[in-house]
Amino acid sequence: MTLKSKIHSSIGSPSSPIKILLINPNSTQSFTLDLVPVLTRSIPSDVSVDFITAPEPAPASINNNEDCKLSTRVCEEHLDLDSPDSAWLEEYSCVVVACFSQHPLVDSLKRAGEGGSNGKSQPAVVLGILDAAINSALGLGGKFGIVTTGQQWETLFDQAIASMGLTSRYAGTKGTGFDAISLHGSEVSDIMINASTELVGKSADVIVLGCGGMSNMRAMIERELSGRIGRRIPVVDGVQAAVDMGIGYARMGIAPSFSN
């Protein structure tokens, strides 16, 4: 099967000079489809986005590091990343892994891009939405806090932020008890706003949404949270941040650096 046959949704023109590939490493296609209208509203006319969802047996929701590892193995096989020729990565300006974690698929794609680069064109920049969201948040306030799904992520994100050397800019993570496929309804919104309010009370100036499934809630949470606090509290969505970052790199003509 070709890569094209694995793309189930696209926005923008196939002839666009800037092409983004978004990979959802869980197997819930409805989650991926929820991202299509979010990005459609903001994508410039010279950008296209292709969407791929991992097949089963990738987990329906990625809830821990073991799920990350399983979904990586499934995606590596699905995308044929072990092939010596991964030149398809050069067709894209950027590849986004839409899971808010230190997902090992990011490094797998980078290795595939390095191995498949033939020197004739620029390999794709590969971005995870955790890194993209945090890098965006750093420019918007002194400290950031993360609102996420299950409480098991609180310790994992503490460790991730420490590994990035950003503990002094970090107000903490608050889990809401949901998973990526149950982020719907007014109860979820209320709990997320309460969790965000708690993080602001712990000195967060910016809130980062710690799950790609929260993307379509960003504007609402920012509006409701800022109204409750009485001042603007920026809310960052990692999917949008990663896509916009990839577009920015493409406009600057920047390609990733390889060690060899």
From TrEMBL:
Top-level division of the source organism's lineage: Eukaryota
Gene3D superfamilies given in the database record: 3.40.50.12500
Q: What InterPro entries does UniProt report for this protein, alphabetically?
A: Asp/Glu/hydantoin_racemase, Hydantoin_racemase-like, Iso_Racemase_Enz_sf
- Give the residue range of the signal peptide: none
- Could you state a single Gene Ontology molecular function term? amino-acid racemase activity
Pfam families in the cross-refs: Asp_Glu_race
By sequence similarity, the record places it as follows: Belongs to the HyuE racemase family.
- Protein known as: DCG1 protein
The record lists the lineage as:
Eukaryota, Fungi, Dikarya, Basidiomycota, Agaricomycotina
